[in-house]
Write a structure and sequence with these properties.
- By secondary structure, the protein is an alpha+beta fold.
- It is rod-shaped, with a radius of gyration of 58 Å.
- A hairpin with an 8-residue loop joins β2 and β3.
- It contains two helices and seven strands; from the N terminus they run αβββββββα.
- Strands 6-5-4-1-7 form a five-stranded antiparallel sheet, with no helix packed on it. Strands 2-3 form a two-stranded antiparallel sheet.
- Among the domains are: 72 residues, SH3 Domains (SH3 type barrels); 58 residues.
Length: 202
Amino acid sequence: MLKNLFIVLLLSLSAVLAAGSVSAQEPATEGKTMYITDDLYTFLHAGPGRNYRILGSVVAGSKVTQLQRDEQEGFVEIIDDKQRSGWVDGRFVSDEPSVRESVPELRQALQKANQDLNAERAQTEPLKQQIANLQSSNQQLLSRIQQMQQEQIELERQLDHKEGKVQIEWLTRGGIIGLAGIILGVIIMLIPRKRKRNDAWM
């Protein structure tokens, strides 16, 4: 009796494990594009495990199509770029593009960036030349302004000198005229006046 019960329990447990294995191998994200990670290569097995026959190898960076995943064994069933179907270690499968796939896109992006940079340089070269011309003109104007300021200072100095000289001349002339007036007054004072004749006594 106990033996029969043990057999029934064993069969039930086997059925549960078998059901779990089947459910683990049910298709998940079927047809999704995946990539083999950037290792040298990974083996393609006939079943979900390393104990299955090796069908070949898949080169690193290859684009593959995922059919299903065995969560228990950690293997993924794929169709590789040679249209071969098999199982590979799930650690070597990623949904991110590999370096092999990314390099052409990166090269294209780099080429476009270089083209844009060259176009920007072609547009900025005339602007740089215009800036250089404006700076040269500005320097010439500054030099001319400094020269004109020096000329203005020199003219103001000459004008001040001339005004001082004119003032001295006017003072000198005024002094001479004043001195001449004084001398003339003295001379006039020294000239004897004629006495009036008194006709009444005649």
